[in-house]
Structures are given as C-alpha cells and as structure tokens.
Amino acid sequence: MHHLARYRWFSLLVLGFAMVSPVRGSSMNGRHSFSLTTFDPTGKLGQVERAMEAAAMGTPIVAIINEKTNGILLAAPQILPSVFMVDDGTARFSSVAPHIAMTHSGISADGRVLIAAAQRLAVEHSYTFEEAIPIDLLLEEMSLLLQEYTMKPGSRPFGSTLLVAHLPSAVSGSDPDQKPQLFRIDPSGSVTLLEDGVAVINGKVSEDTKSKLKELASQSTTSKKIGGDDLKQLCDILQDSISPKVFGKMDAETVQLPSCTLGVSFTPKNGLRIQRY
Asked: Quick check: keyword Signal in the entry (predicted)?
C-alpha cells in the first residue's frame, strides 16, 4: 500500500507538470499560442496571417475601370467539378446594391457568408432609410465584421478576400461625373482603395499581367462602349497568365477538371452581367 500511494503521488505530480508546461512545437509556436487572439513577441497574430494565406490560395480575380463609360470589367476562372456541370453553385460575382457589386476569393464558404452579410446590410439600410446604402457605410460595416472575428473568442478569421466594385453614378441624384471605384477588403478587416483603376487579387498571375491590364484600361477609356471586345480581352489576359494546371487544361498524361472564365460587365445602365468564355 505504501508503494502504491507513492506511485499515485508521482503520477499526479507528472500530470500536473504536463498541464502547466507550455506546449512547444512547430505547429503551436510556444507559449504564445494558448489563445487564438494573443499577439506573439513580434506583434503578429498567427491566426490572421494564416487567414491571409488561406485567402491567397483562392482563384485570381482581375478588374479594370472604364472611366469613359463609368463601368467596371471583372474576370475570374471557374473550375467545374464535373464535365456534366456548367456551374458549381457558388456565385463568384454578386450584386449587393444597384451601385455595388462584390466578389470573393479564398475559402468559398467564408466568401458566401460575407456576401450574404453585405446583401443583408444593403437591404436593411434601404428598408429603414429608403435610400441606397452609402459605400462608406458598407465598407465600414464589413470591415468591422471581419475585424471582429480576429479577436472574438472561440472563432477564427474569415479566409476570404473581398473585391468591391462601386458605381457612384448608378445612384439616383448623384454626380454623373463621379468615377467608378475598386476596393479590397482583407481578412484582417483592412480596406484598401485601388486608386490606379486596376485590381489583381491573389498572386497566381504572371508579373506583367498588371501592366497588360493597365494598357487595356487605358485603351478602354477611348472606346464608346464597355464590354464586348474589352471583356474578351480581359478574359484572354487572365487565361494567358494562369498556368495550365490551375486552369484545367487536358493533355495525354494528365486529365484536369474542366474550367471556364467568367467575364463580368458592371455598368449603371445594365447592372451586373456575367458571361462565360
């Protein structure tokens, strides 16, 4: 009995030491990982950085502004799960309000939640105040939602990046000379105005893609209409910049899933129009 008591005491001592000892290892980063919302000694939040990495793994999105017609062109690849399907059920581009469109890249499920939240905000504001939701208010509320999940206990950040297209001239009574705008919202909640009129979300594109997009944007400012050839050129630039493996090309050695390119024209007159190429 005496030896049994000493064995029990030793077991409790080892168990207690294991409970209070910090967890070490490459996956936990030491004692600063006991909480998802704890800063490490360098001032970084590991969960936010991992959310940024998850968002960067999504399909690329490109967009340009047509200043002459106050319109925006967008494009993104869509990899289909089967040759018998024309859509995978996830809307890449969504209308939030008559003057606001939104797209997401990263974890599709997180993107759908964020798009639904933005649409709900727009509908509630329109119902309450009988006006279209201002872009500043929508960006602020979406930023607060994303930032909340970087510090909320028992939750994780959204692994999705949002691209917001804004057409000020689509709102009745607004200044018709206001130019379209493109905004990027990161998983951390930070909002960035893309002032050069060209957006490239995620890095699965070649280095000269942005220069080609700027050239196309400058050419489109002199055209009389948006869409058509400009939209086809935008999709061609995106297709050429993505590797065959990502885009699902088939050859004799390997068979990839079929894919297409979604081209979107967003104008004050016609709203959001999606074409497949």
From this structure: yes
Residue 270: per-residue pLDDT:
87
DSSP SS3 for 100: strand
Q: Is 209 found in the same domain as 152? A: yes
pTM: 0.79
List, in sequence order, every residue forming a beta bridge with 102; answer none if it has no partner.
Answer: 94, 164
Cβ proximity of 95 and 122 under 8 Å:
no
The verdict on 11 and 62 lying in the same domain is no
Give domain status of residue 146, yes or no. Answer: yes
Answer yes or no: do 68 and 117 share one domain: yes
Q: Are 100 and 135 in contact (CB under 8 A)?
A: yes
74/266 Cα distance (integer angstroms): 8
Same domain, residue pair 26 and 117: no
237 in the same domain as 126: yes
60 assigned to some structural domain:
yes
Q: Mean pLDDT, 10 residues at a time, over the chain (277 residues)? A: 48 43 45 63 81 88 84 86 68 92 93 96 96 96 94 88 93 79 95 90 70 81 59 85 53 50 88 87
Distances (CA, A) of 4 to 13, 16, 113: 14, 18, 57
Domain of residue 231 covers 47-276
Q: Pick from 102, 242, 253, 252: which is nearest to 261 by CA? A: 242
Establish if 41 belongs to a structural domain.
no
pLDDT at 213: 85
CB 160 within 8 A of CB 104: yes
